[in-house]
Amino acid sequence: MDEKMDVVPGYTLDTIVRQGERAVVYRGTSADGRRVIVTLLRSQQPSPRELAELRHAFDFGREPGSPAVVRTLSLETSGDRFALVSEDGGGRFLDELLGTPMEFGRALNLAVGIAEALTGLHARGVIHKDVCPENLVVEPETGHVQLIDLSLAARGPYLSPEQTGRMDRPVDARTDLYSAGVVLYQVFTGQLPFQAEDPLGWIHSHLARMPRPLVELQPHLPAVVSDLVMRLLAKAPEDRYPTAQGLLVDLLNCRQQWTLNQRIEPFALGASDALGQPRTPQLLPLREAELEQLRAAFERVVATKLPELVLVMGEGGVGKSSLVNQLRSTVLDQGGLFLTGKFDQRQEAPYAAFVRAFQPLFLRLAAEDASQKARWRERLDEALGASGQLIAGLIPELLQVTGRLPEVAPLAPADTQSRFLQVFRQLLEALTEEHPVTLFLDDLQWADEASLRLLQHLASHPAPHPLLILGASRDRDRGPSDPLVLALDALQKGQTRVTELTLLPLSREDCTRLIGDTLGADPGPLAPLAALVCEKTHGNPFFTLQLLSALQRDSLLTFDRGRSAWRWSAHRIRALELGEGVIELMLGKLRRLPALTQEALTLAACLGATVELPSLIAAGGFEEDALRVALDVAVREGLLLPHLEGTYRFSHDRVQQAAYALLEPDVRAATHLRIGRRLLAHTSPRLLPERVFTLVTQLDQGIELIDAREERIAIARLNLLAARRARTASAHAAAIRYLHAGQALLAPEPWAVDHELAQGLHQEEAESELSAGNLDTAARLLTVLLDHARTPTERASVYRARIDLHTTRGDLGSAIDSASACLRQYGIALSPQPTLEQLEEADRTVAQLLGEHAIEALLSLSPMRDPDMEAAMSVLASFLPTAYFSNPRLHHLVACQMVSLTLQHGLTSASTMGLTAYGFELVITHKQYARAASIARVALALVERHGFVADEAKVSLVVGVALLSWVEPPRSLYTYVERALRAGRRAGDVVFVCLGLTHRCMLALAAGERLEEVDRAARTAADFNRGIGNEPLLLCVEVVQRLTQALRGRPPALPHETLEEPAFAERVSRQPPFASFWFRLRRLELHLVLGNRAAALAESRQLSGLIVAQRGQYGEAHAVFLVALTLAAHGEEAPAEEQAQWSEEFEGHRAFLGNLAAFCPANFLAFNALVSAEVARRHGRTGEAEEHYEQALRAARESGLVQYAALAAELAARFYRSRGLSTAADAYLEEAWRAYREWGAEAKLRQLEQLYPRMKERLSRALPHHLYAEPAQLDARAMVHASQILSQEIVLPRLLEQLLRSALEQAGAERGCLMTFEGGHPFVRVTAQLTESGIQVAVLGEPVAPGAELPGSLLAHVQRMRQPVLLDDASHPSPFSPDPYFASLRVHSVLCIPLVRKADLAGMLYLENNQLPGAFTSERILTLEVLAAQAAISLENARLYQAAQEAVRVRDDFLAIASHELKTPITAMRLQVQSIRKVTGTQAPDAPTGGRLVTLLGAFERQVSRLAYLADDMLEVSRLKEGALALELDAFDLSTLVREQVDALAERLKATGCSVELDFEEAVVGQWDRARLGRLVTSLLLNAMKFGAGHPITVRARVTGDFARLEVKDRGAGVDRADQARIFERFEQAAPAYNYGGLGLGLYLARETVRAHGGTITVESALGAGATFVVELPLRRAP
């Protein structure tokens, strides 16, 4: 930028002081002649952050009369740019004075000035947070220093460790002292304590590097000054000066000595710190045992991933919250999430503590940058689906992340609670991303029932992330019916671990320690004071501290500075009357506050433990600035704590109680009412729903004071709104409370005066009572509602609720009566016991309404317009499940009625349910599978076309498991089940999510998926069903799990019994019939597969009676098939009378399967064929049996039903073996083996091995290896893919060095080591240490086992658990404290991370920072875990590379040895052949024998020659490895050489059917190595014979300029262009070796021979067009 001055109206700018990236600083003059400093932002469109910083800078200096701060004058604009104007006292910015070391006396004066400025600033309660030379203004003559905030500093060099964001430490006044230390280091030495090139380097320096002492750089400096600055630069805030005042005292001492003596004698630094100043005590040492129990609970949760509840009990003020909050750092260090919320005695909104726990998290996510926020929005949308508004209704801050959310679809009362609980779990899982979660719920004694239910749900259901729930509750007598007692009892009776910790008041000794810590003095002399205080407070810590504060305030406790001791008035303390204890004490403190502060605190106490500033302004009608000042007083007094932005919270419950006690009881109701009215007046209609709980909490406390009818009606409507929102969130008790309040506001005769509102309040109450399980109360309310209903719509709402009520009670008759009564008002007659004639009439009505139109004509129907018919359809839809379970004929009639109403009056969302129910009846009653399928597709199309999303899950599931399962293969049904799952999740319809997951795993089993995949799907379904508490479906899924485990031969993974144990059967028997159906079906399937004939027969009899429970669904066909197959295959073993009893049933099953096979062969031909095969076998019709077995096997294979293909093949093998046809039997047994292996039934394979031991080896050999890749192969493929993505170092030593160096820089560590595993044991490969010159890394030549230089117990824990371990301060007690390493050394921050590649532990990364406790944070763990993941992959890549290099070396050694060793036996074999030829030549000829012998000898001789050729190739390769080929050059004709080689190969050419065409125009003479070129020509000819057998070969030789050109052309398959370069490499071939043989060395040696001569070799080819190899050789080799 040029030096041209900017223009700010009203100011003359004359000097540029500094130019930054975001602003320019000028000196100039105002219009009235005052000298000013002007900071002008560069941007014409500054960001909100820049404007906020400028405003902060202005506020920082606007308070007059502070000599420590440069006074700010105004904020100005210059066009579109903003400027800050400050007073210019003529001083110079410190950065202008720095460069070389300053003269010591002057530097000391400057240090005193900086300390004085910070002391003055901190006295105002202000922290600068940006102390640097650019923000320090120095008066050169006097050394006076002022602070300014220009928001321009390059903060990297001056950041404190806690400002880096890498430490879990608050930023307090000591952060300014660290920055001042950096400045003073520059002042005294002329240089910064650290040097870095980028922000990461600065962060690492501040966290891990120790600066050199000043005296090493400037030996003339007094040692005490060097020590003083080094103390300021301590990494841990507690190791620095506690206050700027203490720093100032020591610097003044230094200056005084220097002025008087020109030297400074050593003295104790910090001796004056905090003398007589009470400080915040630490309760931790007094509660270490209890804290250790909390840590142990957290470690257990992390290790087991099983949720736990720890309840901390104790009286108010005993330190429960303080104790729990001490666990926060442990959780954060483990990468966890620590959420905290508090229940409130004054705020009755449901889930209050959960709301407060998640509000800060949502606000933090909303403040993320756009990309991160979009990621969270996507993640939350996926987790919450269409149910997000359930959470947003309670926690509106969620909308700041997700944007507007759709309204939630209504569900049956029984399902709303399950939906809410599940959605909340999904929210928690989405937010935590598998990190451990600690949820602290404070003041549980005030928790509402809905919150306790949610707490119980979260604590009793395992989740993907570890969850520790901490609760704090006051000790009080709780009866057995207390909701908290009931919740705890339920958890303790289940499998949840519940721990109760009771905190007792402090003992006299502990009270003395606490007082000593608070007063910063030796506890011994304070024992008499402690005795007095403890007597008054009974050892309550909060009371004790408040009393100490009051004693100081009233001068009953003072500090005698002359004697440096505390003094107190014992008799006056003993005479104190405290009345109600700490409340009385707090009241006294509050009454001393300014009147406005008292009023603000009183209203805040009415609003709750946490209050937002805008709400408080509205509630009290305050001016914002005045209120802020009033609240600042409360903050300084420790009564309020700033919470979220614009939010405050009371520092303790007792403070809130005392503030509320300022209100006289007789004005409290009026105060709450006034607050409610003011808040309502300031609430827009748009925000009313999200603030309604706060409003009614205030307004309802003043109901008795409201006279105006209009206001009473308005507040009653608010209570109705609050009740509906509470019931949506399953907070039924809260909803009922709001409804009672609303009803109390109505007129004496509400049904006549306010009928609509009365009806709404009572209807909502009835449904809330029904949802809460209070059925008698709900029944009474519904009767009242029915008596006062005026319209059919009102009555329909009541009847729908009555249907739900009666169905819940199991009183299906009354439910039918309610439905009939409701429908009669719409002219619809519903017979409770329909006759066959009525069903036929209903079917005819539907047919007539459809007429000649196809089912698809329904797609063109218009929406239903008649509200009465819509209400009737809604009632019929809600009645469908009741009808199905009460009377199948009634279900048929209701389905027809719904279709008829749709055809007559148009479409409504219930129409899709009616259509699927009608399609179901077509399947069950009429076996019209194709027509049912058409209806199914129409129903799905209607859902999509009209957006009937509320019913999408129900329709999709019925379509998938009932209507289309007869016409589409099982695997295609996944689409519909997945659609049902997605829709169910979106709508929060947990029942259909449970059903969808259950059917997904059962369909996978039916479809023949690998048992491993089935088991995986079953685990997912089981986890969800268990979480929801759906016991019947959970049992169905556990049945599948037990079946897969039994067939896979795996040990039980479930805590319950196996399929065969009576206890499990007894559990099933207590559930609905469908659970027994699936239980019996799976047992029968297991017995059939394992060949347990008698058990299978017995099980088939049990299953037969249950098939009706699955009529119309895919399970019916499978059950009929298995029962029929059992009877056909093993029925002959039963007594004759039993067989006679079965015959009719069996024939019915056969007919059913035959019809199915004819209708849909793809699904059912295998079933029918296998049963038919067994029938034919029993009756001796062998030909028919053979045909059906083969048909069954083929059909099962084609349909993908691998399990039934295996069973068919096994039964066929049994059939053939029984007839003595072992060859055929073995063939079918092989097929069974293949199919069982493909299915994953390892237990069955072992059974076959035992039954047919001689077959085992052959069966194993018969398997196609390509189908079963080993895990190592799969890992290698994944590794290769990953290595293509990651650009990592591949040489192992360099890789290890790079990884450890990166880890140290990322983590801010000063020491580290990287270990890898060999034989399951860790070995140190690399070590690193931070030194003055940087990070020094040592790669060990030989890896060594960890020794005394590392904590062995910690390493063993990480190796065993495969989880990171983080110690904030290893010198403090921890599970690893006994380790000799920690016991012998003072170690601070420790981090150890496992390097895991898939399931394998590749290594461990160990890091230390001994300068600073808490140096490694949870955020760093996340970064390092990413680095660790990359490291694990890279280590594997490097190891494979190293192994490959070693393999190449071994291979080359083998080639060298083998090529030499093979020469001797090859020579011997050749001599033996020659000897045999001589012997046979001297014997009498025997034509047949001699000819045969000659042929064999020729073949043997050719193979020996081939072996010799390969040995020569191997020898050549080994020579090439040692160096370039040595050539013996000679002049000869290449054409002649080619002819010689062709002649030598004549027999082989003949054997391969190849002729050779020679094309030589002239002699091609050059200087070459004759032997090597001969091998080259031979190699090319052999290659042409190999790939072009049966075709001619053409060889050409030409002279082209200074080169000879040799071409060898074959007419074989050709070489793919992609392979043409590769084939010249070692051990490479264009075609697989098993097709053509060879080692892949010929072309490689040819290339090397040509290169040695200075020539080239290439190939010209295309697939299918043969190949031409072209060799170009220089006629004369260059010297």
From TrEMBL:
InterPro entries: AAA_16, GAF, GAF-like_dom_sf, HATPase_C_sf, HATPase_dom, His_kinase_dom, HisK_dim/P_dom, Hybrid_Histidine_Kinase. One of its GO terms (molecular function) is ATP binding. It catalyses: ATP + protein L-histidine = ADP + protein N-phospho-L-histidine. Keywords: Phosphoprotein. The keyword Phosphoprotein applies. Gene3D superfamilies: 1.10.287.130, 3.30.450.40, Histidine kinase-like ATPase, C-terminal domain, P-loop containing nucleotide triphosphate hydrolases, Transferase(Phosphotransferase) domain 1. Residues 11-252 form the Protein kinase domain. The keyword Phosphoprotein applies. CDD domains: HATPase (cd00075), HisKA (cd00082), STKc_PknB_like (cd14014). Residues 1457-1677 form the Histidine kinase domain. Coiled coil: none annotated. Its EC number is 2.7.13.3. This is histidine kinase. It comes from Corallococcus interemptor. The lineage of its organism: Bacteria, Pseudomonadati, Myxococcota, Myxococcia, Myxococcales.
